[in-house]
Recover the amino acids of this structure.
């Protein structure tokens, strides 16, 4: 339902009576009398997709929780609603490869991809959740059951659509509402014990004696895994604690801090740099703290007496820090992000920051068979040198080097099909190909491109996102143009992927360019993203600012439309 970005209208609050009616409908449909929205404020908006129109319901934070089609009374919970209320709907288990390669790419769940036994409620027409067998309580997709699943005890050899998918994690519904909520820690804890049980059951069938001898080792390993998972899923209090410690470090130890300084500079070049060493900036940042916004964070510590601010609303400047507070006097420094050891002293936390993009390739179709034929385990993602090494290994293993010219390869059917997509080319093109000309067509035809962003400070490399993102590496777009009325503006978009907050960015640009700024959305592209406008021709200034954040010019597209206009004679 949300394969393409839906067009949504403005949100409006539901009346209290309408909210109660909607909640009662949800209870009746799910047979859960105790279900509640958890908020007295529920909003609604109409949406229009490619093939359907309907209504989306959100919580007070504008996160989508339920939706329905216009001419259908059936309500669908989003995965967020399922996380907040476990056991809301029955669950169908599947394999991770089915989720990643098929469901997350827009396909339905086939019966052969499911894992019995099935919940008795999974009859035709039932709204259900889809979960990975390794995380059975964490719903990642929602759909409608198309077959009477409880009647199946085996699925091998069966055909047909088991569940028609209407919504999944990180689909266009999530993107249009900019959902960033993480699954609750308790679901992940349940996941660990459940997956452990599945593994133990498999071992029991294999050899009872072996299970007994290995049980202590498995338990010890499981406990370590559980501990690692708990550490990975930081609580709100933990995030607040780390950021507070970074503030104390900044005030007491950061010799590069000069006041007055902008709020954006204070956070990005001081607070973020002075977090404890090893902290993941994708997990610990102002957005994920209880303050949510930089302005709220700064005003809190102004009230506590640590800072003195000037400005109105979100446009704040730190004019003074208080080093006489007891917390600052008693503060003990620690290794910070980018600290390269005792030799670097306090400068380690303020090393130059750069952004790095790592391009990765996900094998599809024939590429999986090719990798398996090399007798190596199949991975989700590969770097280009790894694929090049696999090709060379395959050529050597199959003895495909041309005897007449060692720089050429006499490709076999497998490589021929991977290099040329069209069957006509496969039949007519020469099979003798220079080795140097093999890699790029193999990558282009048999792998999907992904990218992973990293922030590098000193010797520390911190991922900006939890997992690699699909598609080509992004470029920030800057356009200087003249609006109606001969007013020159500069627009900047597609910067959020680099973890640049629109409000902080606008505040910083406003000061740097000495011009008023506005925050809106792009109108020219199909996929809407945040866009910051500033008055005046400031393309070069903004590029310089982005360079200071570690983003080189090769990831910036700057178009000056004023240069193309000829002066009138």
């Amino acid at each position: 339902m949300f394969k393409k970005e839906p067009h949504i209208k403005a949100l409006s609050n539901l009346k209290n009576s309408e909210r109660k009616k909607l909640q009662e409908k949800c209870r009746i449909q799910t047979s859960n009398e105790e279900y509640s929205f958890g908020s007295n404020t529920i909003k609604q908006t109409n949406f229009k997709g490619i093939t359907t129109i309907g209504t989306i319901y959100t919580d007070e934070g504008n996160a989508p929780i339920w939706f329905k089609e216009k001419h259908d009374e059936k309500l669908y919970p989003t995965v967020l609603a399922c996380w907040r209320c476990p056991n809301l709907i029955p669950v169908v288990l599947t394999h991770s490869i089915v989720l990643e390669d098929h469901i997350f790419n827009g396909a339905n769940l086939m019966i052969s991809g499911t894992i019995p036994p099935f919940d008795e409620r999974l009859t035709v027409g039932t709204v259900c959740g889809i979960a990975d067998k390794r995380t059975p309580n964490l719903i990642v997709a929602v759909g409608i059951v198309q077959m009477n699943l409880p009647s199946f005890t085996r699925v091998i050899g069966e055909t047909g659509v088991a569940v028609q998918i209407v919504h999944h994690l990180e689909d266009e519904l999530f993107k249009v509402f900019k959902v960033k909520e993480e699954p609750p820690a308790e679901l992940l804890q349940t996941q660990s014990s459940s997956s452990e049980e599945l593994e133990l059951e498999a071992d029991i069938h294999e050899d009872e004696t072996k299970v007994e001898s290995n049980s202590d080792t498995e338990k010890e390993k499981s406990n370590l895994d559980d501990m690692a998972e708990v550490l990975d899923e930081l609580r709100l209090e933990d995030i607040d604690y780390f950021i507070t410690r970074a503030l104390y470090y900044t005030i007491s130890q950061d010799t590069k801090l000069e006041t007055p300084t902008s709020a954006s500079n204070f956070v990005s070049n001081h607070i973020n740099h002075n977090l404890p060493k090893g902290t993941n900036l994708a997990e610990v940042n102002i957005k994920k703290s209880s303050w949510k916004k930089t302005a709220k964070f700064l005003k809190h510590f102004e009230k506590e007496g640590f800072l003195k601010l000037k400005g109105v609303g979100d446009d704040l400047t730190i004019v003074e820090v208080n080093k006489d507070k007891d917390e600052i006097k008693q503060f003990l420094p620690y290794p910070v992000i980018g600290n390269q050891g005792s030799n670097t002293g306090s400068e380690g936390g303020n090393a130059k920051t750069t952004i790095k993009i790592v391009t990765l390739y996900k094998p599809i179709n024939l590429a999986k068979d090719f990798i398996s034929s090399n007798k190596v385990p199949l991975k989700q993602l590969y770097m280009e040198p790894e694929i090049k090494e696999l090709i060379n290994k395959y050529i050597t293993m199959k003895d495909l080097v041309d005897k007449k010219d060692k720089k050429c390869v006499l490709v076999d059917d497998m490589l021929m099909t991977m290099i040329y997509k069209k069957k006509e080319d496969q039949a007519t093109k020469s099979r003798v190909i220079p080795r140097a000309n093999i890699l790029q067509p193999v990558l282009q035809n048999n792998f999907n491109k992904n990218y992973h962003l990293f922030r590098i400070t000193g010797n520390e490399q911190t991922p900006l996102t939890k997992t690699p993102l699909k598609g080509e590496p992004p470029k920030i777009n800057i356009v200087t143009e003249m609006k109606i009325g001969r007013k020159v503006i500069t627009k900047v978009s597609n910067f959020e992927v680099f973890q640049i907050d629109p409000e902080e960015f606008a505040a910083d640009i406003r000061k740097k360019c000495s011009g008023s700024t506005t925050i809106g959305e792009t109108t020219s592209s199909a996929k809407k993203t945040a866009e910051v406008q500033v008055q005046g021709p400031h393309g070069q200034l903004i590029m310089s600012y982005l360079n200071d954040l570690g983003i080189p010019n090769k990831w910036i597209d700057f178009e000056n439309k004023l240069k193309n206009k000829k002066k009138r004679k």
